[in-house]
Specification:
The chain has 180 residues and is an all-alpha fold. The chain has 9 helices and no strands. Helix 2 (21-44) packs antiparallel against helix 3 (50-91), helix 3 (50-91) packs parallel to helix 5 (105-118) and helix 5 runs antiparallel to helix 6.
């Protein structure tokens, strides 16, 4: 890729938010939900019905645990973004690179944000469209194909425990100086 065509690069914080924006909206909802369930749980302790207490404990724990899962998923998607951006920068648009991130909406979003920051978003988006990806495909494809995905090591390592990736390039230094 030609350095002169490199668009203005956003800060790491902006990229981090763009990559996981859907996740961070859901994070807000899980925090709000946990707060509501906590209130209901505290109120249920005034009653002696163990089933109602158990229901609110389950609801609260479900939401509360998801707060951490969403944070870990967001961090993992940012690692995907850094890797995809390096790969697209080094090799240009390649179908094999885009295919690595087609599995889930969040991974596709990471690749699309990386491609956008390099000026090749349209090529990556067209690739996904050619492969039947629709805007409403939020559920990861592996979840549909394998109902036992929760017990697979690959699910946990790729979704929540992605290894830290150090970017090979400092794109802020590579972008051309903007003259006023």
């Amino acid at each position: 890729m030609e350095l002169l065509s490199l668009p203005k690069q956003p800060s790491a914080f902006v990229s981090y938010f763009r990559v996981g924006k859907l996740l961070y909206y859901s994070l807000f909802l899980f925090i709000l939900e946990s707060w509501i369930y906590w209130i209901q749980l505290k109120a249920s302790f005034l009653q002696s019905n163990i089933w109602i207490q158990g229901f609110w404990i389950w609801c609260f724990l479900f939401s509360f645990v998801h707060i951490f899962l969403v944070i870990m998923d967001g961090w993992s998607r940012y690692q995907n973004y850094k890797r995809a951006k390096d790969q697209f920068f080094e090799y240009g648009f390649r179908k094999r690179i885009a295919a690595n991130y087609i599995v889930s909406k969040c991974q596709r979003e990471a690749a699309l944000v990386a491609a956008s920051e390099l000026g090749i978003k349209e090529k990556v988006a067209n690739y996904y469209e050619e492969h039947g990806v629709k805007w409403f495909h939020y559920v990861p494809y592996f979840m549909v194909k394998d109902p036992l995905f929760l017990i697979r090591k690959a699910f946990w390592s790729r979704t929540f425990l992605e290894r830290s990736y150090t970017a090979k390039f400092d794109f802020k230094k590579l972008q051309p100086e903007l003259t006023s």
